[in-house]
Amino acid sequence: MNIRLARVDDVMGMQSTNLQNLPENYVMKFWMYHAMTWPQISFVAEDHKGRIVGYVLAKIEEESGENGDPVHGHVNSISVLRSYRRLGLAKKLMLLSQEAMASIYKAEYVSLHVRKSNKAAIGLYKGTLGFEVAQVEKKYYGDGEDALSMRLSLKER
Ligand SMILES: CC(C)(COP(=O)(O)OP(=O)(O)OC[C@H]1O[C@@H](n2cnc3c(N)ncnc32)[C@H](O)[C@@H]1OP(=O)(O)O)[C@@H](O)C(=O)NCCC(=O)NCCS
After folding, report:
1. Ligand 1 mean position, distance from CA 117 (Å)
2. For residues 44 and 12, is the Cβ–Cβ distance under 8 A?
């Protein structure tokens, strides 16, 4: 398995991984926008044939740095195909993105939203990576489920 920076021509593969895993899907221009605007903080995992089996898509919050809110990264979406799970891929993808957010953009923390019922993702964020719940956002998702808004400080790493 090879992990590398996501390129603009990966967006089809990333979207197809997403379609198989998550109810939240995005239009192609959303993927392109991220890959082109913040090209150093999104990563993909590919198999030996170059097929994308996992990705993390991240951004730097536009308003961060102003209004006293420190510059921070935000993970929009992360997904690993079912047969490649529990191999540590998501952990590696997250760590690379966090490292790049901190070193390139001087991000002070990283945020994300996760469904309250998503045990695997919460295990990854909280247990493995050390994220904490900042707040619960009621009915955040289209189907009415609550989101946990989580944060991890990137200082003193
Ligand atoms: C969440 C997801 C990305 C994790 O990917 P992964 O590559 O399997 O995760 P990793 O192998 O890096 O796991 C790292 C740690 O996270 C935790 N974890 C991962 N999957 C878990 C599960 N099913 N149950 C409990 N904890 C889990 C474990 O602590 C794991 O460490 P361990 O394997 O040493 O116990 C994957 O399950 C997925 O794609 N799910 C569908 C999409 C999704 O829900 N994305 C998140 C949206 S916010």
Report:
1. 13
2. no
| Ligand 1 and 123: CB distance under 6 A | yes
Average pLDDT estimate for 82-98: 97
Asked whether residue 26 is domain-assigned, the answer is yes
Q: Within a domain: residue 27?
A: yes
Say whether pLDDT at 68 is over 80.
no
Label residue 124 by pLDDT band (50, 70, 90).
very high
In this structure, what CATH number is given to the domain that contains residue 32? 3.40.630.30
Residue 22 CB less than 6 A away from ligand 1:
yes
Q: What's the CA-to-centroid distance between 68 and ligand 1, angstroms?
A: 33
Contact 94, 31 (CB under 8 A): no
Model pLDDT, residue 64: 61
Counting the structural domains of the chain, the total is: 1
Which atom of ligand 1 lies closest to the CA of 124? 16
Q: Which amino acid is at 134?
A: A
The helix/strand/coil state of 75 is strand
- Residue 25 placed within a domain: yes
Q: How crowded is residue 141: how many other Cβ atoms within 10 Å of its Cβ?
A: 14
Which residue range is the domain that position 101 belongs to?
A: 2-110
Domain assignment present for 6: yes
